[in-house]
Amino acid sequence: MTTDIITLTRGVPPAEAFPTKQLSICFDAALEADAAVVLQYGQQPGYPALRHALANEFAVADAQVLVGNGSLHLQDLVASLLIKPGQVVYTEQPSYDRAISTFRRRGARVVGIPLEPDGISVDRLAAALAHEVPAFLYLVPDFQNPAGATLALEKRRRVLELAEQYGFWVIEDIPYRKLRYRGEDIPMLRELNPARVITMSSFSKLLSPGLRVGYMVAPAELVAAVTKLAEDTILSPVLPTQAAVAEFIERGWLQPNIEKLKALYRPRWQAMAEAVRQELPGAQQYIPDGGFFVSVMLPEDANYQNLVGRAKEQGLVLTPGQAFFADPDDGQPVAGERFVRLPFCAVTPEQIREGVRRLASLI
Ligand SMILES: Cc1ncc(COP(=O)(O)O)c(C=O)c1O
Q1: Which of 16, 91, 196, 288 has the fewest CB atoms within 10 Å around its CB?
Q2: What global pTM score does this model have?
Q3: Phi first, then psi: what are they for 344, rounded to 5°?
Q4: What is the per-residue pLDDT across 259-296, written as a single tens digit (0 to 9) for each?
């Protein structure tokens, strides 16, 4: 029994990534400058200065921005607004586990469209659409959670054409987009054609998840409808954290913080990529250019039975792969048991090498 436990489960930033001192200065400044607003009920679509900063960034009107208590909460509100019970929602397969469960809880049948190394299979999406049009398509186009894949430019265009043709919303959820360690940005779906796109993101991965500051950018009518739902649900968003984030941006500290994070995460990403290439050569590997996750699909003849339980005995904590799989689009059994997500940001290169070595020894 190995005693030092290596945890390769949640995609969370490590504590050393938090800009604690700077945030404390920003909280003080925000409270001193605007206590009457920040400590009061109200400002339903979010703290005005933060909405305005985001509107500038995305080149939209302030009315197209809603800032809420984390992006998952906004996803849930959007799901409750758009999904009629029994309606289908398409996701990538695999997809973000909490999105799948949120959509299901709101009454959707969640169907996964296979994910390829360059993003969702557009051919399979087109086939599914010919059969049934969804309430929306949920994508994590940049450095996907859980697989790490990034949606290629040409596929982004085709997804948007299909959205126009069939008339459905596309949620692009992009919390990892700014954490690119290599290569050039690919345009957001919104930049290619914003008409049917709901963009979601948050400051959880760029500042701190505990702040609970996430946002959506969408047509103004949709933002107004979700804002109304939020008001009826939470009465008022948490404004002190939003004001602190606005202050952080105003002071010009966000981009340097992102650069600091990239310097911290890049060696971990390299270590994970190398370890997976060396130790798991027979697996299908997703090595992204950014984000939090490398992943592997183990070969069919690998020993993946009770992998999570056996890994635990070796001091390696893994997330069960099945959680990331929605219903199949073709009726075939899903390959969840063979899928392993490998988050690398909150572990050191040494832990990464040892963790992947342990994984390889089990299969
Ligand atoms: C793809 C994706 N969307 C949304 C979230 C939730 O983010 P937030 O903290 O803003 O609710 C996460 C968190 O891990 C995520 O990976």
Answers
A1: 16
A2: 0.97
A3: -115, -5
A4: 999 999 999 999 999 999 999 999 999 999 999 999 99
Q: What is the mean pLDDT of residues 132-160?
A: 98
Domains, in order of start, for the chain = 6-17+256-362 (3.90.1150.10), 20-250 (3.40.640.10)
Helix (H, G, I), strand (E, B) or coil at 187: coil
The answer to whether residue 2 scores a pLDDT higher than 90 is no
State the distance from the centre of ligand 1 to the C-alpha of 176, rounded, in angstroms.
9
Whether 219 shows a pLDDT value over 50: the answer reads yes
Ligand 1 binding pocket includes 174 (Cβ within 6 Å) = no
Over residues 92-134, the pLDDT tens digits come to 999 999 999 999 999 999 999 999 999 999 999 999 999 999 9
| 71 close to ligand 1 (CB < 6 Angstrom) | yes
Nearest CA among 308, 325, 317, 292 for reference residue 101: 325
Distance CA 102, CA 239 (A): 24
β-partners of residue 136 are 169
Residues in the chain: 363
For the CA of 10, the closest atom of ligand 1 is: 14
* Cα 71 to averaged position of ligand 1 atoms, centre (Å): 6
68 ligand 1 Cβ < 6 A = no
Question: How far apart are alpha carbons 244 and 337 in whole angstroms?
Answer: 42
**Contact assessment for residue 110 and residue 91, using Cβ atoms and an 8 Å cutoff:** yes
